[in-house]
Each structure stands twice: as C-alpha cells, then as structure tokens.
Amino acid sequence: MPQLCIINTGDDKRFVKLFATLLEFHYIETQFQDVDTVKNAMDVPQTDSFLILLSQNSLTSINLKNVVEKLETKYPTAQYIIALLDPIHPDEFTFHLRNYHAINFSQDMLKGFTKLMSLFDVTFLPKYDRREKIDRREYSEQRHGDDRRVSNLSQRIRTGFWKSYAMATGAGVYDYLMMEAVQQVLVIEFLKPEAEHYEYLDAQGNVQETSTVLENCCQIVWDRFGKGSFERAIFIIEALADTILDNYSVKMLDRRQEAERRAGDDRRKIKLNYSYTAA
Q1: What are the beta bridge partners of residue 200?
Q2: Helix (H, G, I), strand (E, B), or coil: what is residue 199?
C-alpha cells in the first residue's frame, strides 16, 4: 500500500480531512503534519510521498519553506507533490525543490484528484460494472427476469432517494454533506417518505420498520465514511441505498399495500387519541 504524508500550515488545515479521506478511500495510507505545530522537521516520518498543500495563505509561510526544504534533504528519493489550492505560479514558490509534481486544484478539483491518483497508478472513484459479461448468443438463456427486477429496483431506490434529498435540501450533484449527527437525523427525515414505498425483510424474513432500516443503515454509512468528514452528498445517498440493499431483502409495495399501511397507521393514531381522551 502506498504511503503519503500531507504537509500543511494551519491556514489550510480545513482541506486536510478532504484529501486524507479520498486518499485512504483509494487505499493510500495517509498521515499529515501541520508545520505550524511541528518542533523539528526531522521528526516528520519517512513516507513514499509528500503532498504539500499550498494556497495564497500559506505561500509566504517560513515554517512551510523550512520544513519542505529540510525534508528533501533528508528524503531525497521521496516523491514530492504540490497541491495548488489557489492559482499560484511555480515562480511564486518561496521554497525550492529539485523534483516535484504541481497539480492545480483551484480550477477543477475533479481533474486535480484524477491527476493526483494517477501518480499512484490509481483510478479516481472507479465505476465498477458489476454485471456479468453475457454471451449474446446465449442472451435469452442467461438473462433472467429476476435479474432485471433486482437491477431496476436498485436503480429506482437510488434515484428516488437522491431526488427526495435534492428536493428537500436544494442540493445539487456537486454539493457536499458534513457527516455529523444532526445531518444523519435530517437525511433520515428527508428520505423516509420515499423509503416507505418499499418493504424491508431481515435475514430471518421478518418485516422491519422503515425508520429502523434507515437508522441502522445510516449508522453504517456514517461509520464507513467517518463522522465529521466532508463528502459529496450524492455519494452518501447512493451509499445508503446500496447499504439497505446489501442488508435487507427489499420489495416495492403496490398501491393497495401502501394504502393498507397508511390505514393501519391511521387506526393506531385514532386508538391512541381515544385512549388518551378516555383517561
């Protein structure tokens, strides 16, 4: 597994979590070092690569200059990568490196991360085709109706969840979501109306409440991405849909079943209200 250490100043520490999360997601072991707190540049651990976060705020940092130049002296064979968070020309660098890669993140972060991952021979956020390759000559024999229904259901849930979230929040596909407890509660609230179009069975075949399913799977997703991290909202919502499908047997309710469920909820509310009045 490749190893990398992020070098940053206190002014750019808000970007560290984003870089570290995406790097570790792609199996690149990541450490980070704030040059404003390190006492001795020689204490920075050796790694395969060093990623230096550079912005207009940190451009004139004396601590950054000293640490970077001492690192190259101590680890001359390491790979040095400069992540430009603002439009900065190499001539403006206050430190001097003999060999380095400079990647501009200020204009397009997607292109920036794609180029960064390519330095480690890694594809950024790869899209895996989970469908089996099918011999067209045996298409009618190998493609079953059940497979089509599962595929359609998965796409329906993912699309429905995202539309519900986007409608409730006004979020777009490039907007981010802070992985905090309050956001977890809001996601459950926003998705529950759409989630109630389906029935969820656990491994024992028992029907589970929609709220329970959302709460359990939200917790799994939040733990997976890391509480406090900053992630693309659409990735979180789709990950939640996939987690539900991985942990429950899901089937779509027809209109009659949905009407019966609502009627049952209404009867329970009436009974509770009556009992309260009688008391």
Answers
A1: 208, 250
A2: strand
Overall pTM > 0.70: no
CATH, domain range 3-118: 3.40.50.10490
Strands 198-201 and 249-252: antiparallel
Rounded to whole angstroms, the Cα distance separating 42 from 66 reads 11
Tens of pLDDT, residue by residue over 174-183, are 888 888 888 8
The answer to whether residues 43 and 16 touch, using CB atoms and an 8 Å cutoff, is no
Length of the chain: 279
Q: What is the 3-state secondary structure (H, E, C) of the chain?
A: CCEEEEEECHHHHHHHHHHHHHHHHCCCEEEEEECCCCCCHHHCCCCCEEEEEECCCCCCCHHHHHHHHHHHHHCCCCEEEEEECCCCCHHHCCCCCCCCEEEECCCCHHHHHHHHHHCCCCCCCCCCCCCCCCCHHHHHHHCCHHHHHHHHHHHHHHHHHHHHHHHHHCCCCCCEEECCHHHHHHHHHHHHHHHCCEEEECCCCCEECHHHHHHHHHHHHHHHHCCCCEEEHHHHHHHHHHHHHHHCEEEECCHHHHHHHHHHHHHHHHHHHHHHHHC
**Which sequence spans correspond to the domains of the chain?**
3-118, 146-262
Report the mean per-residue pLDDT for the chain.
Answer: 82
Overall average pLDDT of the 70-76 stretch: 89
- The alpha helices in 29-118, defined as continuous H runs, are 62-74, 109-118
Query: In this predicted structure, what is the pLDDT of residue 262?
Result: 54
User: What residues form DSSP beta bridges with 53?
Assistant: 83
Is pLDDT above 70 for 263?
no
Q: CA 96 from chain center: how many Å? A: 35
187-211 pLDDT tens trace: 999 999 999 999 999 999 999 999 9
Q: Examine the pLDDT at 7 and tell me if it is beyond 70.
A: yes
